[in-house]
Amino acid sequence: MYRTKIFLMMISVCILHAAQGQTQRIQTPAELTGHRFLTLNTVIRVNQIEVSRDRNAGMDERDRHTPEYVQEFRRAVETGFPGARITWAFSWLALHDTTYNYRKIRELVAGYHEQYGDDVTFIPGAYFANAYNSYEQVNRDLHEGLAKASEIVGGGFRPKSVVAGFLAAPNLQYLAEKEDIHVCQGTIWSQFSIDNQDGDGSISYPYYPSKEHFCKPAQGKDDFIDCVNLDGWTMDFLAARRDGFADGYNSRMGVGPIETIAPFGKRIGLSEMMHTTAIHFDSGFELNGFAWVTNCWEICLTDSRYSGIAYSGVADWLDDVRRRWPDTKVITQGEFGLLWRQHYRDNSFNYRFVERGSGIGGSDFNRQIRWFMNKDFRLALIRNWQTGSQEDVIDFTRYDIPAKEPQEMTRSWSLLGEINQKQTRPQDKPAPLNRLPEEYRQIIRRIYPYLFP
């Protein structure tokens, strides 16, 4: 009898510890400043690019979306960074598919909200909603998709954010004013000549978008959309200055597995992912007072089916981040965006970044790039640090002048400024700062006088 009581007590202790382990989550800090943040999103879909409710522009991916893959991915995240909270985004078809796999996946992800605190939301148009749908249709999709996500989780649940790839200003305004959602992953910083939509011209850290253009930070109260606009995944600034695949390099290389682990293998790929992470978690943290890295690791990126990318890669990256920067907060993008919104009530930010290349892919080892991003403009300076050459301006994009989004369905949604980093126009030729027109120099000098001798 005594042994039985001892045995039952031990079982009770084990159950208690297991329950405590499940509920021991990373605490969201009360303040934005002084912290490093990492947000991780994943996408569940039926077709590769579901450009509308009944049309797709890619392959069928049903065999890449199974309950087993979903469970494997979530285990990898928890292994790499225990207590992490991530964001799950369902496409329209994935929300409504009645086959066993998708019903089970929705059940699993709803359980992850309870178990881990994950957010569950909707992705309209599979990254490219406005390239294929009217503003009105995107709003209908957002309304019904978000309602379906709430229904899946139950208990009065409401998503904290939306994953969209790109999302036009009228739709961001709709999210804020009609759906009471104030965080959206609605820009992919520097994307140009890749995939089905272009959107270069924004800044890479959070901002309140203008009613004129989703890439433009709001300039004042009349121009203001109360929906924090977030980047899709953090990119290597040196790689990102290229036009698409110019010079044989992928301009989207950074923390994304498709551009790192797939072409270079896990060892070199993870090295580049950590290099890009360090741009923000080391010097970026010192310059800006906080740091943010974001990534999207799609469920379709299974080990044997997509160039050897394994879910173990996300575990390895998260584990490396945890060991090197143990204070990192891995929270949902909605939580991060709302924390930023609590700190910044308007676009009074002034972001600065500096990078020396990794030597991997388009991240030139002998180059140093500096970025300056504020409400009025963005500015990029590059030089060869080995030869000690002077800096050249490769991007100067003004936000204090009118902008306009396309009025038709097109892939071209970029906001190309006076000089654009992709160098696709004659006016984009790099130039020393002191050779810019005096008007431009005065604008830059007003905020960064130390850049001029």
Work out the strand percent.
15-25%
Mean pLDDT: 93
Our count of helices gives 12
Biggest beta sheet attributes: 5 strands, parallel
- How far the N terminus sits from the C terminus, by CA atoms, comes to 86 Å
Q: How many DSSP E strands? A: 13
Query: In terms of structural class, how would the helical and strand content be classed?
Result: alpha/beta
SSE diagram, text form:
Elements: H1 2-23, E1 36-44, H2 67-80, E2 87-90, H3 92-96, H4 100-116, E3 119-122, H5 129-132, H6 135-153, E4 162-163, H7 169-177, E5 183-187, E6 228-231, H8 237-240, H9 261-288, E7 291-296, H10 311-324, E8 329-330, H11 333-343, E9 350-356, E10 367-374, E11 377-384, E12 392-398, E13 431-432, H12 438-447
Parallel strand pairs: 1-2, 1-7, 1-8, 2-3, 4-5, 5-6
Antiparallel strand pairs: 9-10, 10-11, 11-12, 12-13
Quick structural overview:
The protein has 453 residues and is α/β, with parallel strands linked by helices.
Could you walk me through the main structural features you see in this protein, from its secondary elements to its overall organization?
The protein has 453 residues and is α/β, with parallel strands linked by helices. The chain contains twelve helices and 13 strands. It has helices at 2-23, 67-80, 92-96, 100-116, 129-132, 135-153, 169-177, 237-240, 261-288, 311-324, 333-343, 438-447, and strands spanning 36-44, 87-90, 119-122, 162-163, 183-187, 228-231, 291-296, 329-330, 350-356, 367-374, 377-384, 392-398, 431-432. The N and C termini lie far apart (86 Å). The model is unreliable at 1-21 (pLDDT under 50).
